[in-house]
């Protein structure tokens, strides 16, 4: 049985809160760092506390979670023998692993926001609030309790745009893995339930007879997770130009082009369930928006095999290694930057998505998905060396049409650029106490 009170809440459930703030802190003195961590789990209701997986009786107005980089563990005084038991991708860090996930060229670390390359990126405190005021209040409470010895390097704010849409106008956050015996986090799917060990250390994983090694000591490693914290800029003007240009070339409506790129219409309706219109009659009920697989669409005539959602979660599609269910990721993201106003295009504003991609293994989940499924197409029939239409460096999206025809969208521009990445450990509540020296 999972001890929900020991697990950080955001691993198991989305808080569905419209505001987020990610505070990046440097630990200058281990004692100050330990004091902060201890205060987050000491049960004192007057101080911000880490939000756990325990179900709410009443929804709070702000939630808090804590992530630590390998540099952060060191700064808190974790001995090298213990650090050596953490997976090497985590201790190497996002910058060192950049080329594996396509962070090259314009995505490369030399173009990132400086904080992501700052060796003082030790702690990431993520706040999720019902209102801006709730986030401000918890920020103040948190920082009021920190003395010298901790330095705030940066705060990155994110917010919900309209009705769960991203800057390209798609409803996002529909599909998340159902974990162990916890309730489905959104509309249920028909995929195998992911074992808790696909997201938490110390439990049987998604691979048969395999449990990921728990970093030592167990009080530090067990019930922890790993997360890739990512800041991804979205070029909304390039996206609009792309819809117009591909519509002109192919005769498809701009909305159909948008649906083919994603695999869902912008209102969230899956192409597999409605291939010709995003507003079928009757509409696809909200609770069925995730209730599909690709068994009846093996060639991708409805939902392109290379579309974003089919690459990121191929479900029952044929993929190299038959691992379609083994690399699932929990996503916790919101948009940053001002909404794009089509009346004032090319405003030069930075906007995009900011959030955490969570799993038990950075290598087998985030890095695998980015390297094998997003940035290469050889895992699936007919994709060749194409890349994800959202995340790749542009190129081609093969389309299959009924009757055996093949077409493709070509000259796709780069739509998303990495502005920063950090590899983090999400310690359990026990582990936060352990790090605090309790
Ligand atoms: C700015 C960049 C991105 C945009 C605009 C974007 C957009 C979307 C949208 C609109 C959906 C459909 C909604 C849903 O099924 O919940 C989706 C699903 C998904 N995305 Fe992304 N995404 C981005 C980055 C990423 C990255 C970096 C990853 C992985 C590392 C990723 C993994 C996924 C996964 C796993 C799904 C669910 C697929 C499914 O279960 O059917 N996305 N994304």
Automatic annotation (TrEMBL):
Q: Which UniProt keywords apply?
A: Iron, Metal-binding, Oxidoreductase, Peroxidase
Provide the cofactor list for this protein. Answer: heme b
Query: Region (Disordered) spans which residues?
Result: 303-325
Metal-binding listed as a keyword: yes
Recorded GO terms, molecular function? peroxidase activity
Keyword field contains Ion transport: no
**Top-level division of the source organism's lineage:** Bacteria
Q: Which family does it belong to?
A: Belongs to the DyP-type peroxidase family.
Protein name as catalogued: Dyp-type peroxidase
